[in-house]
Amino acid sequence: MMHPHLLFLIVSALVQIPLSAHCLSDNTSQADVNPAAIPAWNGHTPPGTASPAPFTPYFVPEGATSYDSSSPFVYYKGAWADTYSSHFVGGSSRKTTQRGAAFLISFTGTGIEWFGCIGPRHGEALVYVDGRLVNRVDAHAQHKYIQQRLFWKYDLPHRKHTLKVVHAGSRRRKGKHAGKFYLEIDIDAVVVYKGVPPSLPQQRASPAPRYQDHDHGYDQDQELVRQPAAPSSLETWELRQKGTTGVAAMQIAIISSSHAIIIDKVEHNPLTVEHYPAWGALFNLNTYAIKALHMKSNSFCAGGSFLGNGTLINVGGNPVVESHTAPLYFGQTNGTQGVRLFPPCEADDAADCDVSEHPERVRLASPRWYNTVVRIQDGSAMIIGGSRRGGWMNNVTTNNPTLEYYPPKNIHGANGTPIRLQFLVDTLNSNLFPIAFLLPDGRVFIAANRDAMIYDWKKNTDERLPRIPNGVRVTYPMTGTGLLLPLAPENDYAPEVLICGGSTLDDTRPGYELSAKKDLASDQCVRILLTEEGIKRGWQVEKMPEARMMPDAVLLPTGAVVILNGAGSGISGYGNVRDQVGVSNADNPVHTPVLYDPTAPVGKRFLTQGLPESPIPRMYHSVATLTPNGDIMIAGSNPNFDRSEVAYGTEYRVEWLRPPYMNKQRPVIVAAPGTLDFAQRVEVQVNIPESLRNRKLKGEYISLMDFGFVTHAVHANSRLVYLPAELAEDGQTLTVTGPPHGGVYPPGPGWLCVITGDVPSTAMKTMVGDGQGPPVDHGAIESLLKSTKGDQGD
Ligand SMILES: *[C@@H]1O[C@H](CO)[C@@H](O)[C@H](O)[C@H]1NC(C)=O
Ligand SMILES: *[C@@H]1O[C@H](CO)[C@@H](O)[C@H](O)[C@H]1NC(C)=O
Ligand SMILES: *[C@@H]1O[C@H](CO)[C@@H](O)[C@H](O)[C@H]1NC(C)=O
Ligand SMILES: *[C@@H]1O[C@H](CO)[C@@H](O)[C@H](O)[C@H]1NC(C)=O
């Protein structure tokens, strides 16, 4: 093993070499690439040191099993010898220099990986799957690296397979012993992806049992669940830790009833794609399987939204990072004007779903880091603010005080180009990742720093709102979280916004005057009803039981809000202030969620009793989202330059916060229409369990929800609209009326949920609106392309 410091010097020296992404990623087989030649294979920071250590892709996600070289399940043929070291998986590795020597493993599953060393004494191996030669792997490298992924195959049908690896007899190539000695191959571990037995998806394909049996569905599956959940009382909340995300969960959105998309920055994540650490993944909500995405540009601190046609856009980000821990060699491109498209993906296995980027034709009109994206009533995306380049606290030089649309529009004299927003100048410095929601009247609420306004995008005018009380700043890096509270027909969908947490620190003070430990977060929540009287009354102030910087707020289908994650002190970001922990700008993680009931009287809205405490700090770059099952998926936390295992290290573990209704008998949506047009009356088939029959449907409504696109405490597009519903005599047919227009619920994906008493069904996806995509103005697109250089493409 090389001394970490020496390694760093080599990495720095090699950074100059113009190693283009193309020579690595295009059409080379894995054996053609020598990872040791790629300095990017170095760079995570282990405990007790600030220096980067070699990147070791060895990783065992939930649903996979690792077999050590010493496992009795691995059979050896020929002469093999053990090497012992704490650097190896399981403390040992097994090697051979005998031509024709082999190891073999039989396994049941869908994929397999072989981990071992590469180095100057290593040679080639032939790899057979099910008796067929599939690859020739060359483990020869200039320097030695451990725990490298030497071979992988993930697309096998779910059944029994064999992997056989044979010493190919390659000999020393250089020096005076050239050609005389055989080189070695070794095995440190084999990781088997167990996958889902085919019977399970089939069982889930029929709608009724799929939802009814959902929880049983995976508890029965012994292969996937190691510890079946203990039976629990019907009124308790539960927190389960299950699954790992493979890439750090900086951004998350639910894309289907089976998957979430997770987007990170470019860094040394254990999940790999092609030859690089991945920075995007699809996470299976039912089996916890992860699938790497082929991201191209650096999505560091991007924003996102679904469009009216169901395609998810992820926009803005960071240039190619050139620091020693995250250099050019990920095959990444400059993401500051990036538009990453993810088309609708409904398949249970998400097999063909991936991100695509076409910077030569599809890009933003201006660079944006830390922008917020809101879907508006015509199904297009309004992209608000951000900083022109990376940094931390925004300032007049970095600020991008504009908004733009995707697809671009020709309005207010800006033909596809950015439209200036004075509000984003007036709210400097702490104004990144604005909190924004589309209001039923088609205008957009925007809060930044201590201020708020309502923007009329059709007229390009704004109405300023009263300042947020008590000097609390609520946007990055003084991050609070905001939600649009449920919209209901009884009060004509009068919108009310809730904003919680943040900080009262002075945003003009330099970082070295602020403290991660001593500067306390705000415990304030503020609420404003956005009607004429509501605005006159101003913000209503409440106190959370615990102060929070960077909280998340998640709407449940019942209309209650769960506030969770965050820190008790400090500020967002890393590497900027005094008293950093590792490099985290924040400390005193808040481990217990709090329930907020917006309909309860003031003073009785917060409930902490019975909410479980998590052992895992979730601070900067952590997320939480409601899932279609009704539980909350909690992931991420990474206040680090790159993947790190120091205090407040990169967190890959997923937790599931399960409200009490998860253990009750629940109503079921048996069938719902795939589309729901405005004001359209449709029938939804439901199955209400005997025990709930005599209980009323919640106010005769069902919930239509957008789970949002979540990043940096911004839950963009999060929405709950109660739709009028009548239950027929048969107790099985609900007649539901779609939202009146796109202001109440902008066209695009939505989730329907039936609620009886306080128990919601699992949610069923539908597409709201007329099914047309967002308007496309070709003139505005051409004008945008002419006005910007495509310099973020490669
Ligand atoms: C990749 O290589 C295969 C086999 O050599 C060839 O058939 C194919 O056309 C190549 N694809 C590209 C994109 O170059
Ligand atoms: C949705 O609209 C966007 C913008 O016009 C387009 O890029 C995308 O391909 C569309 N998606 C679908 C599924 O039609
Ligand atoms: C990335 O692109 C932006 C424009 O989108 C440009 O200003 C910046 O210089 C580029 N950065 C690098 C490192 O290429
Ligand atoms: C603005 O922020 C950038 C990035 O953090 C920094 O480099 C620059 O010095 C700041 N400028 C001013 C005027 O504070």
TrEMBL record:
<feature type="domain" description="Glyoxal oxidase N-terminal">
    <location>
        <begin position="278"/>
        <end position="661"/>
    </location>
</feature>
<dbReference type="InterPro" id="IPR015202">
    <property type="entry name" value="GO-like_E_set"/>
</dbReference>
<dbReference type="InterPro" id="IPR037293">
    <property type="entry name" value="Gal_Oxidase_central_sf"/>
</dbReference>
<feature type="signal peptide">
    <location>
        <begin position="1"/>
        <end position="23"/>
    </location>
</feature>
<keyword id="KW-0732">Signal</keyword>
<dbReference type="InterPro" id="IPR014756">
    <property type="entry name" value="Ig_E-set"/>
</dbReference>
<dbReference type="Pfam" id="PF09118">
    <property type="entry name" value="GO-like_E_set"/>
</dbReference>
<dbReference type="InterPro" id="IPR009880">
    <property type="entry name" value="Glyoxal_oxidase_N"/>
</dbReference>
<dbReference type="InterPro" id="IPR011043">
    <property type="entry name" value="Gal_Oxase/kelch_b-propeller"/>
</dbReference>
<protein>
    <submittedName>
        <fullName>Copper radical oxidase</fullName>
    </submittedName>
</protein>
<dbReference type="Pfam" id="PF07250">
    <property type="entry name" value="Glyoxal_oxid_N"/>
</dbReference>
<dbReference type="InterPro" id="IPR013783">
    <property type="entry name" value="Ig-like_fold"/>
</dbReference>
<feature type="domain" description="Galactose oxidase-like Early set">
    <location>
        <begin position="666"/>
        <end position="767"/>
    </location>
</feature>
